[in-house]
Structures are given as structure tokens and as C-alpha cells.
Amino acid sequence: MTHVQRFDHIGITVADLDSVTAFFVGLGLEVEGTGSVEGEFVETVCGIPGAHCEIAMLRPPGGGTLLELARFVTPDHVPGSPTAMANELGLRNVSFEVGDLQAAVDAVVADGYGLIGGIGEYENSVRMAYVRGPEGIIVSLFEQIG
């Protein structure tokens, strides 16, 4: 029996919801909605008494899987490793296809973010780069070629 019907969203907990939202909007995602959630539901789901979150839901152009950004109002967030590398256990990266990889990289660099390594090309089919975004989030940007 198949339980999964579709891939709905990926959630990332952040400290500065506004700046992280602005970063992803700068890449081309669109804010689908924002809100706040607290009370029995979120406390039960998260297993955190007194949980209260502010949330921004972002959608790629043309639809698709959502990106949920959440900032805990209470209790305060617990810092992660802002310098985590791809081999560290946990969420590895969030990946987006772009039309022009170099232009996308140039745009995030202009905003003060940088490449983790370099731009690689795989078998004349794809070019890819890892960018370290706000709060250490690794963003994979790739462009189809050939």
C-alpha cells in the first residue's frame, strides 16, 4: 500500500524569518502566505509545550513543492551549525533549477552570500553550485545544459 500521495513541502527553522524569506524571494520564489501558529495543535505536532511559530510559505514559479520557513517565537530557537557541510547528518540542501546558473550565483554573491565550493559540470548535462545562504542554509542551484 502506498501511503504518500504527493510531496507537499520542506520546512526549515530559522532565526530571522524576514531575511531568509527575502533571500529565497530574491532567487525567484513567491510568498504564498504567512501566518502564526500556536496552541494545542502545534504543541502536539512538534512535541514542544508552549510552541508558537511565525511561518512563511514560499512557492516556486509555476507551482510545485512549497518551502516552509518557520521562526519560533516561543520557546527560543536552538542554534544549529551555521557552517555545516554536505556530509553532516541532517538536511543536506534545498535545490532549485535556475535558467542561468552564473546569473543566479552572481545575484546571491551581490547580496553577500557565497559559493561553498565552485561551479561543477556533470557529464555535459547539468551545471551546479552550492551556495551558503542566510543562517548557513545550503542552497543547491543547478542549470540544465546540453
Q: Can you tell me about this structure?
A:
This protein has about 150 residues and is of the alpha+beta class. The chain is built from three helices and nine strands, in the order βαβαβββαββββ. The strands form two sheets. Strands 5, 6, 7, 8 and 9 form a five-stranded mixed beta sheet that branches. The radius of gyration is 17 Å and the shape is globular. The model has no long low-confidence stretch (mean pLDDT about 90).
In short:
By secondary structure, the protein is α+β, with helices and mostly antiparallel strands. It has three helices and nine strands; from the N terminus they run E-H-E-H-E-E-E-H-E-E-E-E. The chain has helices at 17-27, 40-46, 101-110; strands at residues 9-13, 30-38, 52-59, 66-74, 94-97, 114-115, 120-122, 126-132, 138-144.
User: Roughly what is the average pLDDT, rounded to an integer?
Assistant: 92
Report helical residue fraction.
10-25%
Q: Please tally the helical runs, counting DSSP H or I stretches of 4 or more residues.
A: 3
H/E series, N to C?
Answer: EHEHEEEHEEEE
Rounded to the nearest angstrom, the radius of gyration is 17 Å
| Helix vs. strand class | alpha+beta
Shape: globular
* Low-confidence parts: none
Largest sheet: 5 strands, mixed
Percent strand equals 35-45%
State the distance separating the first and last CA atoms: 39 Å
The counted number of beta strands is 9
